[in-house]
User: What shape does this take?
Amino acid sequence: MKLSQNTDTGEILKNRVKENPEDLDSWIDLGSFFLRRKNFVEAEKAARKALELAPKNSFSWFQLALALSGKKDLVEAEQAYREAIKIRPDFINAWFNLGLLLGQRNDLQGAKEVFEELLKINPQDSVALNYLRRVYYELGAKEEAINAYRTSFNIDPSQSRTAYNLALLLSENKKTAEAEYVLRKALDFNPFSTILLQLLYQLLGINLYIPKIVSATSKKTLKFGSYEAIVVGDIITSGRIQYEFVLFLYEQGKQEPILFVSAEKNSLATETDTAGYFLCVFDEHGHVNFGLYASLNDLEYFTKKALEIIASKYKFSSEDMPKLA
Assistant: This one.
């Protein structure tokens, strides 16, 4: 039955079960309605009524488990999830929720066994892998954690967090070459993630201060001599400092940036304050702030000022630098 947006769905569902108390589907629909509204007491009543009508209905056991979990009755919720799984062994959502519930109760061994069973049913479930590797790590099972991270990474190497955690574990276990491979592959998908770059620098023994960037979008690329500069915007950071633009400077023959120039947002500036950006440099000596500049939120102006800093630092002549429009 399709209900219009203006219909009191709850009242219609209540009337349906009142008129047809033996209609299993109506009780299931009513339970779903209460679950969506986080009314776990009424959701439990609806699920139990559905189970009176069909004790072997796996979905009703699942609904009951959800309601009991919402009420924090975790022991009974576990039993309900297990009943759903007993009836339907390939019930992936029940396996997954059971694993989460056991983790909530700090039953890490139980959670480990549940997620391992789930992955036998669906080996490509990257979310379940994510939880399993956390459980392995908490249990101190480092090799198992590494293997779980490897599997998840191979499924989707674009996931920076997975790559970072895998590379960190590998480096801690003296698997430096594999850690470097993982980071470089992840950087192919997210080349401006300085979170990944920082760990790579540590592995390579490179001492360079860098801005904390999770992801960004390339806005402009300039080539001059044996150098390439890429200006990025739409920047998501992992720290308190926000950036309008950051210039990544690469030298020919090196895969990693050798310098960063940034337009850092002044947290005290107003929306109409054009001098709301600090011009800063990150290099082997640290983080240098060149002070407030007007209009650093303009891509062309920022690029011009960043290139001036690069020319000064590396003693480039004006002929060496790219010409801007």
